[in-house]
Amino acid sequence: MIKSSPSAAEQQPPQNRITIGRVGAAQGIHGEMRIIPLTDFPERFKDMREVMVGDELLHIESCRYHKQFVLLKFQEYPVREQAMALTGRLLTVTREEAAPLAAGEFYTFDIIGLAVFDMEGNVLGTITEVLRTGANDVYLVRAEDGRELLIPALKSVVKEINLEQRRMFVDMPGELIDAH
C-alpha cells in the first residue's frame, strides 16, 4: 500500500522534508488558515505544536477540522491579513516525524524515482508517478525510449521493492500495458 505525497506537479519540499499539507485560503477573521492535507494521516495535525511553513518554523496555536480542510492558527500570524501571506506555502516535517507505516507499506515519495526491472533483470524504466485508482495504485513507468507503462501495485505483480538500491522488480503476466 502506498501513502500519499504531493504530485510531481506540486512544488518540491526542502531536501529531507516531507510535505504534509498546503496552505489554502483564510478562514474567518481571526487568522485561521485552511490547510489542504497532503497526507493520508490528517489526524496528525491535532497533536502538532509546530511545523515548517515554507522556510519558516511556525507554532500552532489552534487546530480544528472543517469539511476536507484542517484549520490552523499560527502564533506568529495572529490576524487574517498577516496569515493570508502564507497562502500557497507547503507544510513540511522531517522524515523522522513521518507517520509510521506497517511492514510492506511505502510512501509515494519513496516509490517515485525507483528503477523498475522485470524478473529477468531487464530495465523497464523509472517510476514517474503513482496513480490512485481506488482498487489499487498503479505505477506510471517511463522507459528510456519515452514509452510509458502502467504497472498495477499488486503483490502478484510487484515482487520486490528495495529502497536502498532504488529498485523494484515486477512480474507482469502477459503484455505490459502502454499508457499511451
Question: What is the topology?
Answer:
Elements: E1 2-3, E2 17-27, E3 32-37, E4 50-53, E5 56-66, E6 69-74, H1 80-83, E7 90-94, E8 106-107, H2 108-111, E9 115-118, E10 123-132, E11 137-142, E12 148-152, E13 158-162, E14 167-170, E15 177-178
Parallel strand pairs: 1-8, 9-14
Antiparallel strand pairs: 2-3, 2-7, 3-6, 4-5, 4-7, 5-6, 9-10, 10-11, 11-12, 12-15, 13-14
According to CATH, what is the topology of the largest domain? Elongation Factor Tu (Ef-tu), domain 3
Largest sheet properties: 7 strands, mixed
Distance between the termini: 25 Å
Oligomer: single chain
- H/I helix tally: 2
Physical arrangement of strands within the biggest beta sheet: 13-14-9-10-11-12-15
| Beta-strand percent range | over 45%
Helix- and strand-based class? mainly beta
Describe the protein's architecture and organization.
This protein is mostly beta strands. It folds into 2 domains: 13-97, Beta Barrel (Elongation Factor Tu (Ef-tu), domain 3), CATH 2.40.30.60; 106-178, PRC-barrel domain (SH3 type barrels), CATH 2.30.30.240. Helix content is 4%, strand content 46%. The protein is built from 2 helices and 15 strands. It has helices spanning 80-83, 108-111; strands at 2-3, 17-27, 32-37, 50-53, 56-66, 69-74, 90-94, 106-107, 115-118, 123-132, 137-142, 148-152, 158-162, 167-170, 177-178. The strands form 3 sheets. It has a 7-stranded mixed sheet, with no helix packed on it. The longest helix has 4 residues, at 80-83. It is elongated and about 60 Å long.
